[in-house]
Write the structure tokens for this entry.
Amino acid sequence: MDMNEPFKPEHVVAHYKPMLDAVMADAKADLQHLKIDKQAFVLASVYLTILHSCVEAAMLLRESTITVGAVIRSVVESFADLSALAKNAKYARRMLATLYEQRCRLFQDMLSNPANQYHASLAQQLNPSSELAEATRLLDVEKRAGFHPLSNYDRLDCAGMSNEYRSLYWQLCLESHNNIATVEARHIVETNGSYGLVLAKANPPGTLLKYYDSLISILIEASLLTHSTVNSSAVSRCRGVAVSRWRGGESGKRIFDNTARPTYLAVRYMDVGYGVLTNPKRYPRTFALKRRRGVTP
């Protein structure tokens, strides 16, 4: 890849596919070096969730996919939790408070809407009134100690990822929630001025770039962060992977900014980062984008 050539997403995607496989293989091989005590069980569990999610995402990316964005959104959330836990192990209590809050909402809904058939079997196994009282008590304990439930924004903000929340995470949410522009971009095709429908279209290089870039950068950072936090013997090798994978490796050529922390490369390119929402010319006659002309995120 000639670094003097203009940036072309398809060139980077070709580089990314084997890189993701290599980074996942590195992460799996290094699991043997993780010696986890009970204090770090939550952190390690979150890391394993990230690794396994990346494996599943890589499987989806072998074919045209519309669901991998939702998997990557979950990976971003898990990486935020991992980063916050690495900063302060007591962050786990905020995760616990979030669980108690969700339990409170469930039992409140069971009591307010007893006719909901989907609660019927659960109502036979427990007493929603007593469960609500206990969940409320446990939540109050955490709140009095200063550990409040987390919104998704809180999770990313605690990890220092508020910018990612407003860019990469925002995009992934739009895609996984199937907004109308995304649905049209997936299935509507134009041929000689007429429009038709297809079951599946190949993912554009820019979209693939966003997916691969996010998975690789998060897995590299998550591995280094986890091994560093638990003082694993693989820390130096993880640092070497971070440098070699992101700075060009054996070829000596780098395709990324020469910074200490990998960047989410895709977000920096308008044509890649915001896709159909900022390119109304792509489907100028379709319902959603005719109404989005001139609209930017």
